[in-house]
Every structure is written in structure tokens, then in C-alpha cells.
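Help needed: design a sequence for this.
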């Protein structure tokens, strides 16, 4: 079984190759000019990964970009194999980069997480015990934040937008310029808590500060 890599270790191992560590994955985008070109890029990435592609590589093919994701299936984490595959893909000549990468999480605040989690798992058709994930790999993951007491005066669901660690400050600044306000940066660079003009919250988060 391949060794799990820490967040810091994964980020450091691919930092100069255009890949970014995000929510238990390594991700990179390759710009393309058409779906036909994108299909060629996807095929090249699969060929580079060889027999390990099925257990590690996912491809999101669009007309303007191909997003490559590496994660060890069945473990929902980055291992040494994923790092090696990222290095091999970039070394093959594909122009991997971080432009436009982001992932979305939805956080549900709950007093009794054990009571509310089964509802969300069933209504969404998701899988998992602690964090719920879409088996098809399309929808955002759902996680549950412990509350000590009900808070009827504020929202109970907020969005977590996970971005590449070196894009986070720019994203926060853009949100503030767009009318948002900073609720807290006490846990930055792990996450910044922001709110819209009516108090609805969103967190801009990165992998940093979580190991």
C-alpha cells in the first residue's frame, strides 16, 4: 500500500510543476482550444499514468481546459503514487498550471451531527461517514461543524470555497471589494470567514495549517 503524504509534503513535491494540493487531491489545469485537443490531452495523461490511471487519475474535459485530478481511490487521500504520477504527467510536456482551480464544500452546522448526517446522506444519495461525498464525483462534499447550542439568529449552512493556497488572498480581496466583509481571519491561511452584506457567510479555505 502506497504511503500517505502530508498536505505540506504533497504541496512541496509538486509546487514547481503547476499542480496544487486541494481537499485531499492534487489538481492541475491544462489550457486547450477545443474538445478535440482536450481529448488528446486527456489521452496523453492516461497513457503516462498507464495501469495506475484507473486507481488514481480523474479527468474533467472541457472545450477550454482539461482539469486533471490525482487521488488514491478508496483512501480519499494523496499518496506517494499520486505525487509520482503528477511529476510524470508534467514531465511529459503537458503545460499543467493552477489557473481557475477551485473546489466547493458545503458545511452544515449541527448540535447533534449524528442525527442530521443520515438525512443529508440519504437525500443527496451521497456516501461516507464523517464527510459525505458524491459517488459520481460531481457534487460538492458535505461536512458537519459541531455547534454547542442552536443559533437561530444566524445561518446554519455556509459555503466553503477551497482554492489553491497561493490564490486565497486575492480571492478574499476580490470578495471584500465586491461588498463583502471580513468576519474573521483568526484561522488564516487555513480559512477566512467572509459575509455578504446581509450576513450570509462563506469561507475561503486552503490546505495550509491543517497538518
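Sure. Designed sequence:
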Amino acid at each position: 500500500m502506497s504511503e500517505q503524504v502530508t498536505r505540506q509534503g504533497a504541496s512541496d513535491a509538486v509546487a514547481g510543476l503547476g499542480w496544487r494540493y486541494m481537499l485531499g487531491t492534487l489538481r492541475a489545469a491544462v489550457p486547450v482550444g477545443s474538445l478535440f485537443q482536450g481529448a488528446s490531452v486527456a489521452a496523453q495523461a492516461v497513457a503516462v499514468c498507464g495501469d495506475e490511471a484507473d486507481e488514481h487519475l480523474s479527468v474533467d474535459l472541457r472545450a477550454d481546459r482539461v482539469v486533471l485530478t490525482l487521488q488514491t481511490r478508496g483512501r480519499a487521500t494523496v499518496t506517494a503514487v499520486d505525487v509520482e504520477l503528477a511529476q510524470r504527467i508534467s514531465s511529459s510536456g503537458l503545460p499543467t498550471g493552477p489557473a481557475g482551480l477551485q473546489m466547493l464544500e458545503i458545511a452544515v452546522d449541527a448540535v447533534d451531527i449524528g442525527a442530521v448526517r443520515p438525512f443529508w446522506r440519504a437525500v443527496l444519495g451521497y456516501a461516507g461517514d464523517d464527510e459525505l461525498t458524491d459517488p459520481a464525483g460531481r457534487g460538492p462534499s458535505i461536512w458537519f461543524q459541531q455547534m454547542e447550542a442552536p443559533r437561530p439568529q444566524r445561518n446554519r449552512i455556509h459555503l466553503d470555497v477551497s482554492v489553491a493556497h497561493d490564490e486565497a488572498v486575492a480571492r478574499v480581496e476580490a470578495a471584500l471589494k465586491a461588498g463583502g466583509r471580513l468576519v474573521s481571519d483568526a484561522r488564516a491561511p487555513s480559512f477566512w470567514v467572509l459575509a455578504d452584506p446581509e450576513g450570509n457567510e462563506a469561507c475561503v479555505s486552503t490546505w495550509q495549517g491543517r497538518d
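The mean pLDDT is 91.
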